[in-house]
Amino acid sequence: MSKILVIAEHDGSALNPSVAKVVACAATIDAAEIDVVVLASDAGVIAQQASQIDSVSRVLTVERTENSHAISAVLAPQIVAMAGDYSHVFGPSTTFGKDLMPQIAALLGINQVSDIMSIEGSHTFKRPIYAGSGLLTVEAPTDATVVGTVRIASFASASSGNSASIENADSSVEVPAHTRFVELTSAKSDRPDLQTSAKVVSGGRALASEDNFELIYTLADKMGAAVGASRAAVDAGYVPNELQVGQTGKIIAPNLYIAIGISGAIQHLTGIKDAGTIVAINKDEEAPIFEVADIGLVADLFTAVPELTEALD
Known about the structure:
With 313 residues, the chain is of the alpha/beta class. It has 9 helices and 15 strands. It has a 7-stranded parallel beta sheet with strand order 5-9-4-1-2-3-10, with helices on both faces.
């Protein structure tokens, strides 16, 4: 039997939707027993949310003041202390997971399996390579703990309705004092989260300026969608880099993805390959984005987008 530890990503008050997707991945391993660990200063509400995810056997809580903020140098030693009881330790392939999981693997002295997109066996996984243009099957050693990040765009969320037990775990592990939380600076937005939203509207370099990007924000707000951007738009300074979609940004899988003024570079297409329906608006009929789009409109975005926005009134 595989015993799997899933690390819960959260903001201190709510569980991140990525956790249910990591659990769904873990549940595809035959005869898997899945525990979720919540590291926080006050884990009560978060643990309760985690306990409701189907396939979860137990929720373990590690409560200490140092866990008030998700600092990987602080969290990693605590998880490593628990890892000996598990065959697998999984986290999401989000900013949180990409920061934390390599430190866990390094402390355990093993190689990490990154961006798991399917389970082929208890120690055999598929992951993308070459910006998603190829798939690689990798096999991890069976005599060591598997540490991996799960490509959340490749899995639907595990359903809810469970009532797993919640237990306190050992919180006496020594953590380093050389890394500490100083300040968090982030953009405030009432819009849906880019990585978990069912609808995303993205803009590219063709918008030509930060002011023109308001066309994307307005359309997204009308649709109740998250806002994304191509790397070219981010590099040009139209939007902050947390909105970047693609291999070097966020990998997403919304039900609907609208690409406006985006040509379709391979690194961008990698980030949206798991989207349900892709709509492209571009005045260049030869743009690569049309090769993957389910619906394509060859038009000037400065005419088409306001018309589309007005039609949604």
